[in-house]
Write a structure and sequence with these properties.
3 copies of one chain form a homotrimer. In chain A, 2% of the residues lie in helices and 59% in strands. Chain A is mostly beta strands and 371 residues long. Chains in contact: A-B, A-C, B-C.
Chain lengths: 371, 371, 371
């Protein structure tokens, strides 16, 4: 178990653990001068401010409630009741559907300030549902049925869907491998009558999206993705592909949009490595942290990210991003990031004068802690 | 003291206890096909997601702040400063007025997913005020003056009211008896200029109300109720009646509406019983909980519930409900419920074609935990 | 360290301390009868209901997240990541700018229910930024650059400013002295295009402001203030002055508004005194608290408060307030206040018939606890 903020524990099996995270971002978005948009230029925000409680209840049960307070609003991220039945784990409540390695990896542990473009673009989010997870050794099987995010649940919403994911994660000599695949299906019913796929230029403090399908009348969606990762000492490589198909109303062709990324990273500080647990990346624990005479862990990461929102007559645009991330991890629970991203657009949703092919450079810094 | 999540305590009298509850509901509302309403059919919701803190402060004081986060909004349920003066207890802040045994019993311990129809219909809610409670032995006397719910407090609101309740709760041989009565009076002043009494069909995940007085111009309200309960081993019986009178503006006759219920329950599992404390029902603690080789407690409960919103020329409708509840309590702090309710309406607020007399069947399941 | 609610601590340097405050207010606003305003007369409110967590992270870091839940909304007050570098302390996140002794003193420890009129009038608030604090002995130097309050941060907001404060706080024989000065500068950029300075009549449960500049087109603001305080046994005296200048758009003269106060207080109970720490007033700890056979600390405080919002052709009005406060502190963490305030207006923003010179009397009581 992690050496972290103390947990209240009772001998009868009760535990109570408070936890939280804080991420403060600043940076800039530089687009062609001809584009006049209030979301360009400098901006800053409290990206995430979360507090939660979790713990065990005697009898094999556990609970988790996590709340997001950024933007001076409150949002329930996780609210679950779980039951641990040996190799299987059952969960009821709002929790992550089983889509994408990067989506499932905590935002505290991703290599860039924002996740791969396709994850937000395709609307991955937590939903209320029931799921089961089986984890016998190197194989991980996850599946569930879900209705909708708490924010969208109303008396008239009867959307529902099913999600599944399989991961094979063998350890070969000194290399931790991760091979995965996931499937996502949703029937909107009365819950929604359209989809809209769009994405920011890899930083969240702007609300300007240069790729955007705009509203597409649809009755459901179907997605599937492949996941790869490898960790070997200071090196890691990871990549994913994801296809998202919208089921349009009668007569119209169904578009399939696509996104993916490939990333490599290296620690400049000796003895440091990314960690992996339960089918996702885990916490970086610097070998020589600040406070113990060390400088923490310093990692450089390069990424190519691609998102194609053009298909079947819909022109949402294409985004090619080349990114560099400098990740400084002074201690296990603090982190500072510096991100530079070069975004190349074709068929962009926002015109730059007469052209829709242009570049946008974004720059971001983050101060982060969790407890 | 309950064996629960650990409490931080200091020898000087300070304590800090985090607590919370999570209830996840799903189910359906089946009305005559001729009624076309988005609130019918399947629905689900996070019914309650609450986190709070409470504790003692040296010198005889105590505090409690509880927050409700369901619907991705925040609402203060309780926010109180208390003082313990021996047999008397003083409380300042937002807390429950002293109306109805079922209203005062925690939602974690009621026999059905929703409380008796009259409690919500007549607008029982927590309000900001000052109250005193005397509890010398089997007699309990409670009273207070209250302004309004925090949500409705504004610079122009000067509504206020007084509430009182008396309970006599002797233990006769093996039977815990409860006999109670409460009185409620409110002058709306500038805080509100009308009342509206209405109710859902015994499940909360729909917003459709088949009984509804609609807005009645009023200057105040006056209510009074009677309470009965008896617990003997695996058996319990309970029932209440409540009369609510709205003071209409000059000239119009004042209507008195009525609600009540009668309930009986029985545990199928040996050795289990409902518990009672401080003038209300308390936690079910299964004799053979899950995790200790047992199956927990299984209880069946039957209820008849009645609500009459017709009087003095106002036709809000009548609701007769026959309900069955299966309550599975695997451990002290987890609970699963299955509810079936048959609602019969007369003079319903929603017409079914040419008639306002018809039946609505509702079905609900709940997963629940608290800590 | 204070004897307070227990803190979770680990030997490796981690700590986790929950904290909170609750203030419940009631009272009345009495203005000339000719003024017809819903904010006059009786009102009550939950003034503050806050819960937060703070602690240390191994490696010299610390964290703090505090949330305000009054009005059934949530607002982040503090959200910071700090680093302790010996005599210097670095802070990133939303925190108090360095304006005014009374603004920086916790609302739990001020002598009146509301702070000096100029603090709210001139818009002092927490903002997201980076700051440093040096505290070598009796000298305290604080400075930072800030963007805006989380509530106002958006992709298009690029307001920013700088704040600095110097305090000299020697202890002369039995007298704790405080001499301070602060400077505040802000460039609104795209974040706002006007300022509005206004103030309530020294109680918060009304939203009626008798002084109000109304919207003034402006590009920035510049403020500076002086601070004085002295504590000697049961006596204390304190006072401040503050000048706020708005930079109007081209052509218009820049108005400079002014506010200030002078206050004296005396404890009727023997052995009690105000306390002082880190450049601001701290907690009153009664020598003979309730619960130990004592009655707590009783203090009377008198204050003159002045706010002048007339300058350079703008007539926001002048407010002269004479206030009396009775502060009963039964124990270290509970407090009850009784405030009477006589406000004299000239050029008031609200006319009373034909005149804008009249008096408003306000009365308030508060029940308070913190943990």
């Amino acid at each position: 178990k992690d050496v972290k903020v103390a947990t209240l524990e009772k001998s009868n099996g009760w535990s109570f653990e408070p936890f939280g995270r804080l991420m403060i971002d600043a940076g800039s978005v530089d687009a062609p001068d001809v584009i006049n948009d209030p979301g360009l230029g400098f901006a800053n925000e409290v990206r995430r401010a979360r507090i939660g409680v979790k713990g065990d209840i005697p009898g094999g049960f556990d609970y988790k409630i996590e709340l997001e307070f950024a933007d001076n609003e409150v949002e329930i991220t996780d609210a679950t009741l779980g039951y641990d039945a040996g190799a299987a784990k059952l969960t009821v409540g709002q929790h992550n559907n089983f889509q994408s390695l990067e989506e499932l990896t905590s935002s505290r542990f991703t290599s860039f300030m924002e996740r791969a473009a396709f994850t937000d673009a395709f609307g991955f989010q937590r939903r209320v549902g029931v799921s089961a997870e089986f984890n016998p050794g190197t194989l991980l099987v996850q599946g569930g049925v879900f209705t909708d995010n708490i924010d969208n649940l109303s008396a008239s919403n009867n959307s529902w869907g099913a999600d599944g994911r399989v991961v094979f994660a063998p350890k070969l000599a000194n290399t931790q491998l991760h091979l995965g695949g996931s499937v996502h299906w949703r029937d909107f019913n009365d819950g929604q009558s359209s989809v809209r796929y769009r994405q920011r230029p890899q930083v969240h403090f702007t609300d300007t999206r240069f790729v955007d399908t705009r509203s597409i009348a649809a009755t459901g969606e179907f997605g599937y993705g492949l996941e790869f990762a490898a960790i070997n000492g200071p090196f890691h490589a990871t990549g994913e592909t994801y296809w998202q198909k919208a089921s349009r109303t009668a007569g119209a062709a169904d578009p399939t949009f696509f996104g993916g990324y490939a990333e490599v990273g290296y620690f400049l500080t000796g003895g440091d490595s990314r960690t992996y647990k339960g089918g996702k990346f885990d916490r970086i624990k610097p070998k020589n942290p600040v406070g113990n005479g060390g400088f923490g862990a310093v990692q450089v990461v390069a990424r190519y990210d691609y998102l194609d929102l053009n298909d079947a007559g819909i022109t949402g645009g294409m985004q090619n991003t080349y990114g560099l991330s400098l990740v400084w991890t002074p201690t296990d629970y603090t982190r500072f990031m510096l991100n530079y991203l070069h975004n190349e657009y074709d068929d962009a949703a926002i015109a730059a004068g007469l052209t829709r092919s242009y570049n946008v450079d974004t720059f971001g810094v983050r101060a982060q802690l969790d407890f």
